[in-house]
Write a structure and sequence with these properties.
mainly beta; Immunoglobulin-like; 5-stranded antiparallel beta sheet; 4-stranded antiparallel beta sheet; 2 helices; 46% strand; globular
Length: 287
Amino acid sequence: MIPTRGRGLVSSLLALALCLAATAAMPQARPARHTKASLVSETDAIQPGRTLRVGIRLEMEEGWHTYWRNPGDSGLPTRARWELPAGFAAGEMRWPYPTRFRTGPLVSYGYERDVLLPVEIRVPPAPSAGEARIAVRVDWLECQDACLPGRADLSLDLPVRPVSAPGPQAGLFTEARRRLPTREPGWTFAVAPAPSALRLLVRTPRGTALQEAYFYPSTPRLLDHGKPQPLTREGATHRLELPRDPNGAPAERLAGVLVAETGRGTVAVEVDAPIAAGPARTSQTQE
């Protein structure tokens, strides 16, 4: 029987091998067979001096998935390289909260079926042309039992005019925003070390109780993704036990996304809190 620490090392080495193999394949990536990539806009035109909201849409065949910004035990996050007109600038890709995929002892984080990754494009006050091309090269990894690298060169040609209207894909952005983590007022977090774990203490707004919860860390190799995260309640505080990666590096902060089921539905809340040296006290998140 492999000791606990040994199992963690084996899982880490296996995940590393999978990622290295996938990384080596990415530069020669061909269009993947099981994921369709497209570039869509929330509006039908570009307004001078106004933010343009676009999104990379990945549509996956049944049983296939792509990855979140932290892919977990294996996988690679989707990457984008933008080609924009002079004076335009792309912001960071935003990530709707993911789901979990288990393969043996490994647990990965990502998306299945359909996901939109929104990006805001800053538009100059006076674009130099009456039409602008927004282009991006997208690389992703799609997996089922095996993994395939994918690449697509995508573009949009949009008119530049003072007034715009919702485009035909505007509904996709409404759904994506529903799944984007937010900094909810009234939620407080504190983190303290426990034996082989981190203890996340959560205080919720009045009348909000957590029925289920899972924490997705932004930092790779901080937590043991394959182990459960037991949720308990102590008075007004919910406690989530987060097993550490036995081979992970020390950390000073816990950052990521808490996805919880409440009586009012699913909520996804951003977490960024220092790891206390001793017993933790919950503190208000920064607005």
